[in-house]
Amino acid sequence: MTRIALALFAALFLAACTADGSRAVEPIPGSITYGGQPRTKLTKAPIGSTFEHTFNDRYGRPVVETYRIQPDRSLLLIHRYTRIEYF
Q1: What is the CB-side half-sphere exposure of residue 29 using CA atoms within 13 A?
Q2: Considering the domain boundaries, does residue 12 fall inside one?
């Protein structure tokens, strides 16, 4: 009975994981892709390259987002963190 419960728990745990092991980062106000993809495309940047975008959130805290350029030249938001500044 314990093995069945353990196997069931393991199956549920694995089912909760996404295919690449990460969760999608959703854009927030201030993100480049908030409200959709930008109208202009980055045509000179290599596909797969990444860049950072920094802006302040609604509380005035600096937010840093990392984007990856997709093969169709759209932007994929892959990481976000908020800097904590001590005064």
Answers
A1: 6
A2: no
Structural domain total, the chain: 1
Residues 56 and 62: beta-carbon distance below 8 Å = yes
Tens of pLDDT along the chain (87 residues) come to 666 544 555 554 544 444 455 578 999 999 999 999 998 888 889 999 999 999 999 999 999 999 999 999 999 999 999 998 787
How much is the pTM?
A: 0.70
- Contacts (Cβ under 8 Å, ≥6 apart) of 15: none
> Could you tell me if residue 52 is inside a domain?
yes
The 3-state secondary structure of the chain, one letter per residue:
CHHHHHHHHHHHHHHHCCCCCCCCCCCCCCCCCCCCCCCCCCCCCCCCCEEEEEEECCCCCEEEEEEEECCCCCEEEEEEEECCCCC
